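User: Before I run my own analysis I want an independent prediction to cross-check against. Here's the chain; please return only the structure tokens and, at the end, one sentence I can use as a sanity check.
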Amino acid sequence: MKYKILIAFLSGLLFLPSIYAQSVSLLKKIYAYKQAGIPGILPTAANEEGNNQKQSRSSIFNYWIYIETSRNVTITITDLWISGKRFNAKSETIIELPVNKINYSAASGIDTVLLVPYTTYKVLLTYPTGLNKSKSSTSKYFSGLISKNELVVGYIYKGIKYCKALKKMTILEPEVHQ
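Assistant: Structure tokens:
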């Protein structure tokens, strides 16, 4: 009887770190922004008949994803799923807070937008570096998470992979390029 209690107690101690990591959110907050870029003068290109033709406008989005974590936690951001597409990710620590962005829009001219307010947490700037074309199998839960949220962040903490989702990214006014 004493051995059963001792074994139950010791096995509980072994699982305590994983239970703690799952119950306490490692990512405190995600600030995610997307901004459409409006191209300036469109270049012309010769078509098959040799006539000059303007190239079509395509939607190009810039993404700014800021992630708050505790200062004593070290995580590695591995993947970003943006609107269902998987991207490789790169992160860098932001030292100067708050984070502001100067926006040049056609409607209002120059505008400053607060992206991340001052915080005592560590802030990571994470951005997509290219489409990840690897075919990895995902569970039904994870596939549903990707389809129901505009942004899903995949990260590794102490060798275990986790994810956190964000329903909608904040849309910034389109920026006008010259």
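Sanity check: The longest helix spans residues 2-23.
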